[in-house]
Amino acid sequence: MKEIFFTPSDVIEYLFCPRFTYFMEVLKIPQQEQTREKVLIGRSLHKKKQKENTTYLRKRLSIKEKIVNAYLISPRYHIKGIVDELLFTKNNQAIIIDYKFAEYKEYLYDTYRTQLAMYGLCVRDIYQREIKRGFIVFTRSSNKMVEVSLSEEDYHHVLHIIHNMLKIIEFEYFPPVKKNQNKCIDCTYQKICV
Fold this sequence. Notes:
With 194 residues, this protein is an alpha+beta fold. The protein contains 6 helices and 5 strands; from the N terminus they run ααααβββαββα.
């Protein structure tokens, strides 16, 4: 099988419905996400964050190095992506920061944790550092920062998802639609999904 890489967006779409992987990777039918308003706002936000808050958290977490828009790629785990901020502490730990153009709702979506775990696997592979936590910044709630602990169970969960996505591509397997078909109403593949 050729080298295949998944971004957090690919995995989140798989979690929305496994057929996304089939349509995008097997049939090669792209989405038209570049015109969606939230996507455009999110991209603008990330550009803005590159220029501000350059020293926050450093004292509290004893940060010795900060990489903004760190490009991560791991052939071992079939993952690639750009993490908003990757921090290294003085005691050789790594911490991930991810900005969301969203309001904090007193709970975390599983997709947020999944995204952090994907980046964590990449950091483990590339930098040989443990990642036991990350932070989500909710920009529509006055930049509220929420700490997210990452466990081995979170990493195994991501690896299981990626294994299933690879099976769809390798065997051109057409997966069943998600049980909650209310999601189909909002799906970009609604017209071709039968």
